[in-house]
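> example.struct
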């Protein structure tokens, strides 16, 4: 790789590392897996950086690699992780603890979704990508994105730790975003 391309790749990694790790964390549910997944995707991007950098959106290209690497992880070994709904010791119920509990419940609920639904929910509602953008990242049709998002949200609504939080104002926002295109 030429020095100019090397510098361009390093700048891309510096600028997008935390965002890619955050996305990977939502896909995997584990910070260590997320970092490994991001490193794997970036290693693949590095090998083909000339092609990646010429694409209309290098970040979308690498995000697609991230999702593919995550799918490969499930193909290679089917290991299920048992996430707990709450930490073993419960401290006083202040706002920070409540937010942490909600986050834990959300991560546990996401872990229960099949990989494809999880990827769609994360890309669509966390990454705030349009249905067309998610379809491009996952290599499927916008209709598939809609159906996977609908099924994923339906499963999340039945998850005990999220049921009460999904009945509030966020549910109407999620439902409106789910039904319409951007």
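> example.seq
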């Amino acid at each position: 790789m030429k020095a100019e391309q090397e510098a361009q790749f390093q700048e891309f990694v510096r600028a997008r590392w935390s965002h890619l790790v955050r996305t990977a964390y939502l896909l995997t549910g584990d910070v260590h897996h997320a970092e490994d997944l991001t490193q794997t995707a970036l290693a693949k991007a590095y090998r083909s950086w000339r092609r990646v950098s010429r694409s209309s959106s290098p970040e979308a290209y690498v995000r697609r690699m991230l999702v593919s690497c995550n799918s490969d992880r499930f193909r290679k070994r089917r290991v299920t992780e048992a996430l707990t709904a709450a930490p073993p010791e419960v401290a006083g119920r202040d706002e920070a603890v409540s937010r942490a509990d909600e986050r834990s419940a959300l991560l546990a609920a996401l872990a229960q979704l099949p990989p494809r639904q999880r990827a769609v929910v994360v890309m669509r509602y966390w990454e705030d990508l349009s249905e067309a953008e998610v379809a491009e990242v996952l290599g499927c049709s916008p209709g598939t994105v809609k159906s996977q998002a609908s099924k994923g949200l339906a499963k999340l609504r039945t998850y005990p730790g999220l049921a009460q939080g999904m009945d509030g104002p966020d549910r109407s926002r999620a439902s409106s975003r789910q039904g319409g295109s951007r």
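> remarks
Confidence is low (pLDDT under 50) at residues 166-182.
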